[in-house]
Design brief:
The structure holds two protein chains of two kinds.
Chain A lengths: L1 H9 L3 H32 L3 H5 L13 H8 L1 H33 L6 H13 L4 H10 L7 H4 L7 H14 L2 H9 L4 H12 L1 H16 L3 H6 L8 H9 L18 H40 L3
Helix pairs in contact in A: 2-15, 4-15, 5-9, 5-12, 5-14, 9-12, 9-15, 12-15, 14-15
Chain B lengths: L1 H49 L23 H7 L4 H19 L1 H12 L3 H12 L6 H12 L5 H8 L10 H29 L3 H9 L4 H25 L7 H7 L5 H4 L2 H11 L3 H30 L5
Classes of the chains: A mainly alpha, B mainly alpha.
């Protein structure tokens, strides 16, 4: 059978040849469109602002300058934001995992009677929610507004999508016989979960841990709605001020609007730099953890 | 045989009688493990649902979450009669429908395209690249748009100016929706294609061999084997997408908004934020938010029902 198909492939029809050429060109086009903006930001951030603003930096950096990065390193706002986000992301992800993993294990146990009902209880929140205002009111009544806790405990603390991914993984990878054998030896659920299930589930823990982590890192909404104190603001709010509100320089200068000119040119330089600095953790880790991200989608797509 | 059956039903009914007490005793560890998640979801997801009644009550600072005196449908009427009502509906629908029409087929096309690549390494590089933008934050994405589209200094802005597109696109009413939708496709097309690629990978290889023996060309293989293979995935994702048909990406629209593009960029969710969080008209904003939620939920149920009838595919 295999030999037949190979023969067929070798005897290419002219129409298929045209088709293949089209595919190659289209793929190159997509690659360029996606990769170029990211590449451009990198080279623009280390080039001379004058060349960048006149459109002379296209494929190679020109007139090396680190002005943008110098400004960013001197800007305390960026570092306060960085520190806050780092804390929210690490501590938040820890709590997320602490709540999600055991719950997913319970939902994967066939003998657990309330399983179906609780599954509905969780999934329902994906399709219906109280909305922004009641959630805000709740946070205010709980005195969580303007505290770091609001980043940790909010409607996304137990992300139902991640819960389903984890449950599906447990169902498919932890054989029922294993638990039966363990209980024979007097093993409780706690012990079984912590000494057998978790070590076997490094892959899914990595997947949802990374989803939660990236979610915290990119979280802009929580800071916008619930935080007034600038010392508690996450990185994304600081970024918004620099990139979009054009408050580029901490002293307040450089807000030239879109009018252009000397100040704007340097302001743009800072913006290119701050995009790189803020996305660096994600960009640096990305090539190594990419396969985990992809895995998450694949586990999740198995309908449970 | 009859005997064994009887004894089976007997034990079944006995175990049912014992459920409440004995299963709690048996499963108390499981209950303890799921307890934090349940409490968390009750507090942060279900209590706000209970708080929806604020939309039907006067806001009262002392009463908190549930609101004060009963106001009935007053705030809904206020919204329906508001001069902004039709503008908000039009903008919200325009943005969300364009996003679905353009953004939904794009990952399907990309998956079919990537699936054609035989060169493994090249395929890997392309996939890694197109997934990357998904992890860029919305603030960075909008910042990227701003610096690149800036008419005087941005690389895209300068290029477009050469092609005859003048003016600041970010402050333009006509360019807002295309920029929003295209940048959305740019960011998510790769990531959303993963699930289709997985569906394509599970196509039975025998089908390909059979098609080749029958002399099918590549285009015919795509049309007659690959597309039918991913139809169930397409339908499930379409239902899920329709469930959020009128909830636009609040953060991105909010960040792309400026006073010049406001006539097109003010949508329900940004308006809820402004009336509620910024101007403290909590009851009014809660009513608008509830209106939005209800339409979304209804759309989801309708589309799911249609899919159930037509294709026998359902979310529940």
């Amino acid at each position: 059978m295999a030999s037949i198909s190979i023969d067929k492939i070798k005897a290419k029809k002219p129409k298929d040849l045209l088709f293949d050429t089209f595919i190659i060109f289209f793929c190159l086009f997509i690659f360029f469109v996606v990769a170029y903006p990211i590449f451009f930001i990198v080279i623009a951030s280390i080039s001379d602002p004058t060349f960048v603003s006149t459109g002379q930096v296209l494929f190679l950096p020109k007139g090396f300058s680190l002005f943008g990065y110098e400004q960013i390193f001197a800007d305390t706002r960026v570092w306060i934001g960085y520190r806050n986000t780092l804390f929210y992301a690490l501590f938040g992800t820890f709590i997320n995992l602490l709540f999600t993993l055991p719950a997913a294990y319970v939902l994967s146990r066939q003998e657990f009677r309330a399983r179906r009902f609780l599954m509905f209880f969780f999934i329902f929140t994906m399709f219906f929610n109280g909305g922004l205002i009641p959630t805000y009111m709740l946070m205010r009544d709980l005195s969580l507004v303007d505290t770091p806790w609001v980043f940790i405990f909010n409607p996304l603390t137990v992300n139902v999508f991640n819960l389903i991914i984890t449950r599906t993984f447990f169902e498919n990878n932890i054989p029922h016989e294993m638990f039966e054998a363990a209980t024979m030896d007097g093993c409780s659920h706690f012990k079984f979960f912590s000494t057998i299930v978790l070590p076997l589930s490094k892959a899914v823990t990595a997947v949802i841990g990374l989803y939660y982590l990236v979610g915290h890192w990119n979280n802009f909404f929580t800071g916008l709605i619930y935080i007034r104190d600038y010392n508690l603001q996450p990185l994304q709010i600081v970024l918004r001020d620099i990139l979009l509100s054009n408050q580029v320089f901490a002293e307040g200068a450089g807000s030239g609007g879109t009018g252009g000119g000397y100040a704007q040119r340097y302001a743009d330089q800072v913006k290119y730099g701050v995009i790189i600095v803020s996305s660096l953790p994600v960009l640096v880790l990305y090539p190594f953890i990419q396969k985990y991200f992809e895995k998450g989608v694949l586990i999740g797509s198995v309908k449970g | 045989m009859a005997f064994t059956q009887v004894s089976k039903t007997k034990t079944a009914s006995r175990s049912k009688r014992e459920t409440v007490l004995s299963t709690f005793r048996r499963d108390y560890q499981l209950w303890l493990m799921i307890f934090p998640a349940i409490i968390c979801v009750i507090i942060f997801n279900y209590v706000p649902m209970y708080g929806i009644q604020l939309a039907f009550r006067e806001y009262d600072f002392t009463a908190g979450l549930t609101g004060g005196e009963w106001a009935g449908l007053k705030y809904f009427e206020q919204f329906f009669n508001s001069h902004l009502f039709w503008d908000l509906i039009r903008n919200t629908l325009l943005i969300s429908i364009t996003t679905i029409v353009v953004g939904f087929p794009a990952p399907i096309a990309l998956a079919l395209l990537v699936n054609q690549i035989r060169w493994k390494r090249g395929k890997r590089i392309l996939q890694t690249t197109v997934y990357l933008p998904h992890f860029i934050s919305i603030v960075v994405l909008v910042g990227l748009l701003n610096v690149m589209l800036s008419p005087n200094t941005g690389v895209l802005g300068l290029l477009l100016a050469k092609l005859g597109v003048e003016g600041n696109l970010l402050a333009s009413v006509t360019a807002f929706v295309p920029i929003y939708v295209l940048s959305d496709v740019w960011q998510h097309v790769g990531w959303n294609s993963i699930i289709y690629l997985a569906a394509l990978a599970s196509v039975d290889p025998q089908l390909y061999d059979a098609a080749k023996i029958d002399g099918a060309n590549k285009w015919q293989i795509i049309r007659n084997i690959e597309i039918p293979a991913i139809i169930p995935t397409i339908i499930i994702l379409l239902i899920l997408n329709m469930g959020s048909v009128i909830s636009t990406g609040f953060e991105k629209i909010f960040l792309m908004q400026n006073s010049l593009n406001l006539p097109i960029s003010e949508v329900i969710e940004t308006y809820v934020y402004k009336t509620g969080i910024v101007s403290n008209q909590f009851s009014y904003a809660a009513a608008i938010g509830l209106f939005n939620t209800l339409i979304n939920f209804t759309m989801l149920v309708i589309v799911n029902t249609i899919a159930k009838r037509v294709a026998r595919i359902s979310l529940w």
